[in-house]
Design goal:
By secondary structure, the protein is α/β, with parallel strands linked by helices. The protein has 16 helices and 5 strands. α11 packs across α12 and α13 packs antiparallel against α14. The radius of gyration is 22 Å and the shape is globular.
Length: 367
């Protein structure tokens, strides 16, 4: 049996791939390819959730299990047992597992035991899709607004050290998301040549993606209210994302709307933070991002100096507008248009208060 494990990474199209695999589960099985069903989820997150030390477990996994790390581990054990049962039933030629949190697991000893149990002697290959540092950070800045108004400073992820652990399991393939285009087609063709053309491709993802201007407006909305529960915060974000997306569609032609784009100083901070990691990935895996400056220390130093990046003193409590090169005036117009459409009270944010809050945030930009 071949075992192909998709191990992430975050912000690199994992959800769209998992939705496609889930939608084609029956067709794949007819071809001898098993993509196991674990509960009602399209992904296999539960397989990895309990393979972390307690302090490294994701908040969402802990919340869903009564903040009990032992309960998370039990759920992971049940998920692996489910996979073992499905493998025994179907005896596939190829088994596919997919969870982006595989990348960050700690307990490789338990992982090995399960892999031996479900597929003794299996030919195991891990595949990871990487998104270049700058667009990776831009995407995170947008997505974090679904959970918190704080914007994290640029920083690298320890991909190299984690991938070295996966290399002990078997060969690791690294793929540049920008180069492959559609992750679904690329992954399916890696599984079996010609496979992608025989399957149906559902919509990539249900998540609403806002422009940078929309994200600045969204942060103003979310910062306008007193702090409450994570569930309530997430629900308010869900209410306002589609409303802002509708505003972008309605008046976008008259505005200069762009995708989330960090300003030059933040760009150089990201490249500075990522350089050692990028070089390590190139040296060990032969993988290189399409970002020449990332591998040029003198150029990074010049960029930091020219923009005064190190003296700017970014903090996680700063407004998103400080990090982005997007149009703040357009963000204010989007906010006003979105709030005036339909029942603005549904989100619980008076329009005047929101406008005032956004103006205050934008004034901080000029300090």
């Amino acid at each position: 049996m071949r075992l192909i494990i998709h191990i992430g990474t975050p912000k690199a199209g994992s959800s769209s791939l998992q939705v496609a695999l889930d939608a084609n589960r029956s067709m794949l099985l007819k071809r001898g390819i098993l993509y196991p069903a674990i509960g009602r989820a399209s992904h296999h997150t539960d397989l990895a959730s309990g393979l972390h030390v307690p302090e490294a477990m994701r908040d969402i996994d802990l919340r869903r299990n009564g903040n009990d790390p032992a309960a998370v581990v039990r759920k992971t054990e049940a998920a692996w047992q489910s996979v073992a049962d499905q493998v025994a039933k179907h005896r596939p030629e190829t088994l596919i597992l997919s969870a982006e949190n595989f990348m960050s697991i700690d307990d490789f000893d338990t992982l090995r035991k399960w892999l031996v149990r479900i597929g003794p002697g299996a030919e195991t290959t891990s595949i990871a899709y990487l998104r270049a540092p700058v667009p990776n950070h831009e995407s995170k800045a947008s997505q974090r607004l679904g959970r918190t108004t704080q914007v994290r400073l640029p920083g690298s992820l320890p991909w190299h050290s984690r991938l070295m652990r996966w290399k002990e399991i078997g060969p690791v393939q690294l793929r540049d998301l920008a180069a492959v285009g559609d992750i679904r087609t690329d992954f399916l063709e890696a599984v079996q040549e010609g496979l992608a053309s025989t399957l149906s491709m559902p919509e990539r993802n249900a998540n609403v993606s806002l422009t940078g201007e929309g994200c600045i407006a969204l942060q103003a909305i979310m910062m306008n209210e007193a702090k409450d529960s994570a569930v309530s915060y997430t629900e308010r974000s869900r209410i306002w994302r589609p409303r802002l997306a509708e505003a972008e569609a309605a008046i976008g032609g008259s505005l200069s709307l762009r995708r989330v784009t960090v300003n030059p100083a933040v760009r150089w901070l990201i490249l500075d933070a990522w350089q050692d990691e990028a070089v390590a990935l190139r040296e060990e895996f032969g993988f290189q991002f399409d970002e020449p400056a990332l591998y040029d220390r003198p150029e990074i130093d010049r960029g930091l100096a020219d923009t005064g990046a190190r003296e700017l003193g970014f903090a996680e409590t700063d407004s998103l507008s400080r990090f982005l090169a997007n149009d703040q005036t357009a963000a204010l117009r989007l906010l006003a248009h979105a709030a005036e459409q339909g029942d603005a009270s549904r989100g619980g944010f008076p329009l005047t208060k929101m406008k005032d809050r956004l103006r205050k945030l934008l004034r901080r930009e000029s300090r």
